[in-house]
Amino acid sequence: MSTSTRIFLAVSVFIIIIDSLFVVLNAFFAREALQQHFDSWGDDRRATYSILRDQTLDTMQVLAEIFSRDPQLHALFIEGRDAVISEGGGPGGEEAAIFRTALLKRLQPAWTVARRDFKLRQLHFHIGPASLSFLRVHQPDHYGDRMDNLRHIIVDATADGQRRSGFELGRIYSGLRGVVPIFPTIGKHRGAAIGALEVGTSYQPLLEILEYHTGSDFAVLLKADRVDRAMWDQFRKDLVTLERDDLVVEATTSKCIARVINEVPSNLFEGRSQDQLQIAHFQRADDRWIVVATWPLEDYLSRTRSQGGTPGFVAVCDDVTGEMDAYQRRLATSVIYAIVAFLALEIVLYFAIRNGTRHLQRRVEAATQSIRDLNSALKVRAETDSLTGLLNRTTFYAIAEETRHRVQQQAQGLSVAMIDIDHFKRINDHYGHVIGDQVIRAIAQTLRATVRDGDLVCRYGGEEFLLLLQHPVARDEALEASSTLEAVATRIHAAVSALRIPIDQPDAEIRVTVSVGVTEMHGDEALECAINRADGLLYAAKRGGRNRVVRG
After folding, report:
1. Same domain as 344, residue 307
2. Which residues span the membrane (predicted)?
């Protein structure tokens, strides 16, 4: 074997090793970026759920307070409670039945309105101490049962006279409940409470709101053994039990959620701490990729006393076939680039050796530069969003941190703007995902053309975009900074509103609007805090009717 052949083989082996290492590293970093995207998605869905759950509990407590302050309702309950006691407790006798019927009749008009406007599912009067059912307005034929070891929220409210709220299983329904104690005299909270009034709703309307705003499917799943111990059999049979047998569907926004949950890896439903989030993605039998996040469901007992363990789980899922296809295309592209680079280098190396070792160094340097160019091209692909060409989230965070440190030394300030395309789910549903992608690309091009030099734009995820805007912060320039920031946000909003997106459909073109939340960063404030604040302002813009800029 000649010396030139040995050199050729040795260099070829070296190139193969370098090429293989490049492919492996590119696959690793692409996988990490994908997992970070899924983690952020799960954190966002859980945060949105928690906010809406707390708002629902506050609403239930306010409604319970309103009902409890009705003098006629209060008087009828007091007389009914006295009748039950005088007639031996439990369901009471004929006199208790008279007051129970009168109380129900008095409540019916308000109950009908509250069910329609606030999606109430439970309205329940309890006699203290502890919990003796006097009247279930939602099931008036069931009363007189004690729930001292089941309805801890009622037991606590009658014991210390304090208002309570939380999720709890019941004999008939599970629900998000607001509870107020009832005292002998309205408005005078002295002495022991003689009972409690409970108002509750199911998770179903809450999940439907979440699905509308996020586009994700949600489900609340209860542990079957907890449900079996709490609910009466005649109401338990109405709940759907999953194939895995240990979980029951309490509420869901998707009829096919049971099939999805049955395919989820079992470790997503294993016991864990109350704040732990689990995320997994997998390929279903129909070749669609699904990402699922679960976290423990808090009930009143686990939330207030850290006792009893979680009664179930909250699950949210999305179809991420598009993201997974893009990830796999990125891997395939890196392999193709590596093969092309290897073949190009082999050809260059062959001719370099054939023409003599005197030209070898020059040829190898040229080939090395080719590798650098390919690495640079792949680096650009790894740092940008494949659909829009904007920065991806990981790269945006890295550059934003560098920008934050630089502008602090230059007496400049930063602002964060969160932009969301209004009613994007309707566009996808009506025109399909191909047109939806076309709309996202058009918005991205408009943002890139509208912002100033030095501003950063990234695709935050789905139909959301994130901007980092620079502006002066000196005292005499504060007003100018504010107006500049307002002008940039308004200019972006106006540019998108004026956009006409041509499509190959009978409608000819699509017009879209965006909601914008924009806020200034304060001092050494963490970027994540400003982003969360901008996200909250974005939701304020959504609640305000969309197609607007909200600054805070």
Report:
1. no
2. 7-29, 334-353
